Amino acid sequence: MEVLPCSRVAHIERTKKPYNNDIDYYAKRNALRAAEVWMDEFKSHVYMAWNIPMNVRNSKASGYCLDQGAEDDDKAILYPCHGMSSQVGALVTITQL
């Protein structure tokens, strides 16, 4: 997905913007929303290109997620999914999590 700036044709802007000056955050959020809604089979490519963590789950054990454990150097284990920080990670290379 390519993010292009608005051409401002018939575009009305507010004099005071309700968000901070970092427009990249909002542009990226809107592009992710478009990928989620319209690009079902390609949205994983968008997440990987922007280095956004995806759910890592075992298809054989649907209620379990990869969990780091309580300490930073703990060995990864399968644990019931709870969505807390110990289950958030990023795929950095083909063989490394």
TrEMBL record:
InterPro entries tied to this protein: Nucleotide-diphossugar_trans, Ricin_B-like_lectins
GO MF annotation, one: polypeptide N-acetylgalactosaminyltransferase activity
Naturally occurring in which organism (per UniProt): Acipenser ruthenus (Sterlet sturgeon)
GO BP terms in the entry: protein O-linked glycosylation
Protein keywords: Disulfide bond, Transferase
Protein name: Polypeptide N-acetylgalactosaminyltransferase 9
Gene Ontology CC, one term: Golgi apparatus
